[in-house]
Every structure is written in structure tokens, then in C-alpha cells.
Amino acid sequence: MLLGPSLFVSAVLFTLGVAGVLLRRNAIVIFMCVELMLNAVNLTFIALAQTLGVAGQVFVFFVMAVAAAEAAVGLAIILAIYRHRRTVNVDNINLLKG
Amino acid sequence: MPATLIMFWMFAGVAVVSAVLCITRTSPVASALWLVVTLFQIAALFVMLDAQFLAVLQVLVYAGAIMVLFLFVIMLLNLGRLSVSDIKGPVGLAVAAFLAGALGLQLFIVARTAPPADVSLPPGALAAVERAEGMVAAVARPLFGAYLVPFEITSVLLLAAIVGAVVLAKRHI
């Protein structure tokens, strides 16, 4: 019964996450928008787990573990870049070499 | 409209509104706190979709651990009060609106297609499982059975992430 509305809400949240990634320059906020997109996908998994079996919920578990690892490494990278360049604005971070 | 659906749209509405506020607030701290609101609403939606265990995990891991990590880094870098907005100008706004709109349109079209009927469970099947043995047991059985190898690989991934984060964030190796 809630499948259609859930997929709709999840599509809206994913779109907002993409809009945020395209709209912002602050690397940390871009990162938070990526988390929003991951959550929208989790909502899709759980909505479809109602009709396609509980394996969808297991996948959400894995997505959460990968998201935690990604957040830790990503924030460490942002921290290292800030120490080096004194900015987290992605327009100013444009060189691969240090 | 049944009461469940009204509750669902209440939680979904707050989730969408706070997601919009998250991507439009200039201050990174405000953005992070609005994202926490969104994550809590999504946890409520998880409960309504028979995923109680993952709703608890969502609050503990996402709203608890990951967002605290974000706030910690924002405050460590002293980004709480920015003098200039980091939101892109009219051209960037138009490009973002166009691309996100196109993607959203595609997602809505995909979301309208129903899952194939021959693999679908009968309605209320997951709720029956939840009443019979609880959602923790229902999720744990495939997790430690069919998905045991990915589960073990996840632990290696987390270990690699811990070591990587420490090495990257350290001043001098």
C-alpha cells in the first residue's frame, strides 16, 4: 500500500540530494548531500523489501556500513585538504599535485 | 484516506521540507542539523515500512555517529559562520535545476512501474514475519546465511577505513 508513495518520496529526496551536490561549493555540504542520496536509496530498498523479500533490508545494512566508512575517509580527506589549502571551497581545490 | 497514509505523508513532508532547507542554508552547521531532521523522518518511514531494526540503526549510525562526525569536522575547521554564501549563482542554479529536474523526471517514470507480480510476496507478508519472530531475527537470518561473505568483507572494509582515516588526518606520518 505504501510502495508507490515511498518510491515517490525517495525519488524526491534523491533529486534534492543531486541538486544540492550541483548547487553547493562547500565540500562538507556536498558530502552531506551525498549522504542524503544514500538515504533516499535506502528508502527505496526498504519499500521494495515489503514486496520482494527481506533481502532488501540486508542490503540497507551494507549501505549503512559503506556510508560510515565513506564518511570517515571522506572527512579525513577534507581535513587534510583544509590543512594544506586553508579552504574547503571546491572551486579553489583544482590541483592534483600538492 | 487511511490513518497510516496520513502519518506517512506527514513524515515524508517534513523529510522533504528539511531536505530543501538542508541544501539551501548557508551555514554548514544549519545544513547538518536539518539533515539530522531528515534522517529522523526517514527512520520513522522505515518503521512504517516494517523495518524496525534498520530504523533503530538509522538513528544510531546515521543521526548519531555519522552526523556527529560531520559536526565535529565543521567545528574543527571553524566553518560555522561563513562570510560569503557558497551557493552558486544564477547560471549554476539553472544548470542544477535542469539536471536535477531531468533526473527527477526519469526517477518518477521508473517509480511508476510496479515490481513483477510473479516474484512479489502477498501484501502483509513482511508484517506477518515481524509478528512471528521479530524483524531482528528476520534480517539476521539472511545476513548470517546467504550474505555471510559480504558481511565479513564489510568488517575488513571498516578496518581499512579506520586505518585510512587515521593516516589521512594525521599531520605527520
Task: Offer a concise description of the structure.
The complex is a heterodimer of chains A (about 100) and B (about 170). Chain A is mainly α and about 100 residues long.
E-strand count of chain B? 0
The number of distinct helices of chain A, counting runs of at least 4 residues, comes to 3
CATH superfamily of the domain at 1-82 in chain B: NADH-ubiquinone/plastoquinone oxidoreductase chain 6, subunit NuoJ
Radius of gyration of chain A: 17 Å
Q: What gap, in angstroms, lies between the N and C termini of chain A?
A: 54 Å
Low-pLDDT stretches of chain B: none
Calculate the mean pLDDT score of chain A and round it: 90
SSE arrangement of chain B, N to C = HHHHHHH
- Relative helix content of chain B: over 70%
N- to C-terminal distance of chain B: 61 Å
Tally of structural domains of chain A:
1
**Total number of beta strands of chain A:** 0
Give the H and E element order of chain A.
Answer: HHH
What is the global morphology of chain B?
A: globular
Task: Please describe the biggest sheet of chain B, giving its number of strands, its sense, and whether it closes into a barrel.
Answer: none
Query: Biggest β-sheet of chain A, characterized?
Result: none
Helix content of chain A: over 70%
- CATH architecture classification name of the domain at 1-82 in chain B: Up-down Bundle
Query: What class would the helix/strand composition of chain A place it in?
Result: mainly alpha
